[in-house]
Amino acid sequence: MKIDLKRDWQAGRLKLRGLAPTLRDSIAARLFWLSAGWLIVALVATAFLLTELYSHALDTSLSQTLDFYSETLISHILDTGDPASNDIFIPDPRFSRSGSGWYWTIADDTGQVVNLSPSLTGSVLPAITTPFNAQKYRTAALADEFGVRIRMVEREVTMKGTTYHIVVTGSLDEIFRLVADFRGQTLTVLGAVAVMLAIMSFIVARIALRPIGMLRKSIEQVREGESSTVTGAFPPELAPLADEVNELLRSNAQIIERARNQVGNLAHGLKTPLAVLRNEAAGNKTRLGEVVVTETEKMTALVYGYLDRARIAARTAVVGRKADPTIVMLRLARVMEKLNPERTVAFKRPDASLPWFRGEEADLEEMAGNLLDNACKWAKANVAISMLAERNEAATMLLIRIEDDGPGLSPDEAGKVLQRGVRLDEKTPGSGLGLDIVKELVDVYGGTLHLKRSQLGGLLAELRLPSARLGRG
Fold it and tell me: Which structural domains are found in the chain, ordered by start?
């Protein structure tokens, strides 16, 4: 089975970054908006249901009150024996106020009104068109001459051979006003309840999802190199996930270790046979010997080149490593000044806010060391090193700039020199593999390498690498 460590490492980095969801897609936001929406719908429906029940209760109470008043009139008629008697009344001041909606009348079978309430003087009640029921009773909701909506109750009573129609009314507008006030108060109260429940739902969601944030932070600490495993006390729902992540990290470390061992074994296994072939062929001055020497040297270069690539991929696939670039570059600058006393290596020390490199310190040293070594080889007198943090929407990158005052490269030459083994000057010592190794490491870490014209007149190498959060722990 072929293992692509570079692809797996970069895919793992993307997955870890995906653990930090945006607010719009977060579980807490979804729970909040779902619960808030449901609360609004439920409470509004509750408000209208309560209002309808309250309206029905008031209407029922009004009907019962009107039935009571109609029975009171019937009682007065039976007591006086005369439906037109002035002693017939209802002790409610509303029946004395014109346009109140509270009226009563007593009419004979021909429709002639024989008695009425003071509130109805000069007015006529609308007629009920619905038929009487078996109990000689009917009711309706109509409007009087003043536009007041009223509930009308009519009873038919026979006394001394004469049939009388007793009508009592009550104002429905009063009920409607009470219902409107009740609806407004209910919506206000339930709105306040909704706000409190929404706040409580938000708090509960945050508290309930806090372990997920803890797990994300623990994984981020592994990615940033602050921890080697996912640690923390997680609830039963998340504990298996944390265990699986730790098992994945352990399995990845084992795979990398096996790859390293296989690379070492292969290097040792091929080194001796190739050396024997080359030595034997070197003593043979024939054409065949020359061909064997040439081809074994090519084979040795290819083997070591691919072994270097495998070694680089295996080492950079390790999760949870970081290095301080200031210390690395300071050490390299001092070494290069000693190796090249005729060159001045100026290192502009960055401030404390510079992020760390997320990866192996040896890899950073190899990348920056190759670039700095090339700058010292080609510089006339001056080499400059600077570092800064380059921030964008996706991430923060560590930018290392190495420039010299040498002859520099044209755009075409800058593209060619990054190819494996390509050398523009065969006189300068070296194998031509330095920049290619840098490019390999840069690709593995997901960074970039650009060669430009320097302000010093020579070459400017811009190395962009992934950064880790500040800290040595």
Answer: 226-320 (1.10.287), 322-473 (3.30.565.10)
